[in-house]
Predict the structure.
Amino acid sequence: MLQNMLPEENEAYGAYELPYQPASSASVGVLDIPPVTQTPPVQEASQPPKYPPGPQTSPPPPQKRPGRAGAILLLTFVLALIFGVGLFAGLEFTSGKSSTSTTSRTVATATATSSSGTTLEAQQEAAIAKIEPAVVEIKVITVQGEQIGSGVIIDTNGDIVTNNHVVSGEQTIEVVLSNGSTEQAQLVGTATADDLAVVRIQPFAHMTVAQIGDSSKLVVGQEVMAIGNPLGITETATNGIVSALNRSVTESTGTTISKAIQTDAAVNPGNSGGALINLQGQLIGIPTLTAVNTESNTAANGVSFAIPSNLVVTDLHQILQQ
C-alpha cells in the first residue's frame, strides 16, 4: 500500500523535495525527475551576510544619513526659536514703550491740570481785582427803614447802575466805596420794567469804571463770578458758572425779566445791583434775585438770576438821555 501511494504523491508534489530518499538506492534516480526550475530562497534580512573565506571582520556599521524628516524637524525648531526670541523682544519693547508713553501722558495730564488750575485761579484773581474797585455798597433810607444793596460805577461822571428795587421809595441814598469812604448819591432815573436804576455820586480821583461786556457771547458752562455786598458783608466774591440763558423770571414785585442769565454763583440779599463778571473782569450781568423754594419759602441754593449786560446798556442810554 505504501509503495503504491508514493508515485501519486510524487506526481502531486513533484515541485518539492521528497521527505526521505535513501542515498544508496539505485532504483530511484534524481535525473529521471523532470528538471524543475526553482527560485533560490530569498535570504532573510535577519540572516547574517555571507562573506568569502578568509579572515572575517565585522563590517563597519552603516552610517545613517539624516533624512528629510530630521532636517524639517531641525529647521522647524530653529525657526520656532528665532520667532520666540523675536516675539519676546518685541513684547518687551512694546511694553517698555507703552509704559513710557503712559507715564508721559500721565505726567503731561497732571501738568496740564495743574497749569489749567493755576491759570484759572490767576484769571479769577485778576478779574476780581479789575472790577472790585468799581463795585459799591448802597444804603437806602425809606419810610420802612434801611435797605441795603450793591451798585457798579459805569462811567467817569460817577453814574452807578443798580436795581430799581434797591432804591425804590428812597429818601436818602448813601454809597460806600471800596476804599471805605462814604458818598451821598442822588437818583438819576429808572427803568422799572427791567428793574434797573441809576444813581450818581460826585466823581473822585482815581475812580475805577467797570468795563461792560457783551452778554450775547455767553455760553452755558462758562465761568462767572458775582461781586457785591451780601448781607452787608462788603467786597464779597462768589464764583460759579452760567447755568442757563434766556430765562424768563418774575420778581416778588411782579416785574418780569426776560432773557435773564441763570447762574449757580451764590447770590444773597445785598448782592442785588452788584456785578456778575466773566474771567476778563467785564460786567456781563446785574445779579437781581434768587429763586425761592415755595415749599420751605426759603432761597434755593445755586439758582440765581441776573439781568444781561446788553439789556443794561440799552436801558442806560435811555435813562441817561432823559
About this structure: The first strand starts at residue 135 and ends at 142. The chain has four helices and twelve strands. Residues 1-52 have pLDDT under 50 and may be disordered.
